[in-house]
Amino acid sequence: MTQSRGRHELKHYMNYSAVKEIRKFSDTPVIMLSARGEEYDKILGFEVGVDDYVVKPFSSKKIMLRINAILRRVEKVSSSKKDAEDHVIFEKDGFMADLTAYKVFIDEVQVDMAPKEYDLLFFLIRNKNIAVPREKIRAEVWGFDYYGDDRTLDTHMKLLRKSLGPYAHFIKTLRGLGYRFDG
Fold first, then answer.
1. Rounded Cα gap, residues 143 and 149, in angstroms
2. Which of 39, 85, 88, 105 is most deeply buried (CB count within 10 A of its CB)?
3. Per-block average pLDDT, block size 10, for the chain (183 residues)?
4. How far apart are CA 45 and CA 19, in angstroms?
């Protein structure tokens, strides 16, 4: 074995060690990107705790789809708690959202919103503390086949903030990118 190949092998197995160490204290999603596509390498990756194993060459679109799929699964589990009736609940300060029953409470008073406002709010809550691009919001909330006006999202966001009243500050505008729910 050449010296450079030996270093490459060592680096590769150090990646597995890094994942093992991460798993000792965190459930952070891990996608391993590798030039090694042998079944053994993939099996070892999954055994040490990677969530997905992608072999080069790969497209950025494929990676983004895999990241989004993993984040959807993780967010369903970690972003909210469940109550005694198995409702998914998000609470912060005087704001409470029951994502299962489609109810929002501001300082213990229920707020009525339009269906798209609920969809938009709950999507942002499920992706809390993540910068979500405008295109992703439109695709997830309105659907991939939506070809409406770009201002539709802005109009709905304005109405949503108005509905949230004193908690409108939870939604941050990221100029040139999209929005983030800081919860």
1. 14
2. 88
3. 47 70 78 83 82 85 83 60 70 92 94 93 90 86 69 91 96 91 85
4. 8
Residues contacting residue 50 through CB under 8 Å, at least 6 positions apart = 19, 30, 31, 32
The radius of gyration of the chain's CA atoms, rounded to the nearest angstrom, is 21
**Cβ–Cβ < 8 Å for 122, 145:** no
> All domains of the chain, ordered by start, with CATH?
3-77 (3.40.50.2300), 81-181 (1.10.10.10)
* Residue that is written with structure tokens 């509905």 in the block: 163
127 three-state secondary structure? coil
Predicted confidence at residue 135, as pLDDT, reads 84
For residue 167, the model assigns a pLDDT of: 96
Query: Residue 11 has which token pair?
Result: 């680096």
Contacts 24+ apart (CB under 8 A), 106-111: 106/164, 106/165, 106/166, 106/167, 107/166, 111/163, 111/164, 111/165
Please tell me the predicted confidence (pLDDT) of residue 125: 93
Name the β-bridge partners of 33.
54
Residue showing tokens 């009525």: 112
Give one DSSP letter per residue of 61-115, joined into a string.
Answer: HHHHHHHHHHHHHHHHHHSSEE-TT--EEEEETTEEEETTTTEEEETTEEE---H
